Amino acid sequence: MKLPKHFYLRPDVAEIARDLVGKSLFTNTNGRVTGGMIVEAEAYCGATDRACHAYKNKCTDRTKVMFDAGGIAYVYLCYGIHCLFNIVTNSEGHADAILIRAVEPTHGLDVIRMRRNSDSRSVNLTSGPGKLTKALGIDLMHNGADLTQDQIWIEDSGITFSSDHIVSTTRIGVEYSGIDAFLSWRYYIKNNKWVSKP
DNA sequence: GTGCGGATGAACT
DNA sequence: GTTCATCCGCACT
Questions:
Q1: For residue A140, what is the domain's CATH number?
Q2: Which domain holds residue A115?
Q3: Is the CB atom of residue A116 positioned under 7 angstroms from any atom of strand B?
Q4: Short-list A64, A55, A87, CA closest to A174
Q5: Separation of CA A17 and C1' C2 in angstroms?
Q6: Which nucleotide is nearest to A120 (CA to C1')?
Q7: Domain count of chain A?
């Protein structure tokens, strides 16, 4: 059921981002399993993409995990507060990654609600990149984690969406990146209420 | 060593 | 619509 390594090793990061929409993301923290279906994802390409932290293949302590072979997690701290979860793709030496921006919670709703400390409308639980990491208990400890192991992983949900139901648009929050801000590398499920609302 | 700002979210007015 | 929480990475000196 877990997606195999070769799924992540393909060279076209935008294609993989699209393929990830509809797949299921799981975590297991201290025996508490939580999971949800990916409904929104964005592709970032290190070599050519100004919006990517590893633009021009810039390798630093933070970005070095993106240069590893695909199928591992890239988690970083944003605004000093939020952990954002990415999936590293492509073969070793290519710094490509896919930001997961929203999931539809499917497993461990009680734990998710507790982590989100919220009894508000459930649609708010995981509809954003910082929200879903908190809901699924993803933090900096997961940086570099192998997505084919048992701490954090991705499964084929068995659900497939036709191309009519997957929309592509420009990415969120990358206005600073000039021409690359216009790349349509954000993919999400049409009319799905769990997609983030920028 | 220092300073700036970010792939956001929540709580305000 | 606006504000602010909160801290590391990174580009300088």
A1: 3.10.300.10
A2: 5-189
A3: yes
A4: A55
A5: 33
A6: B10
A7: 1
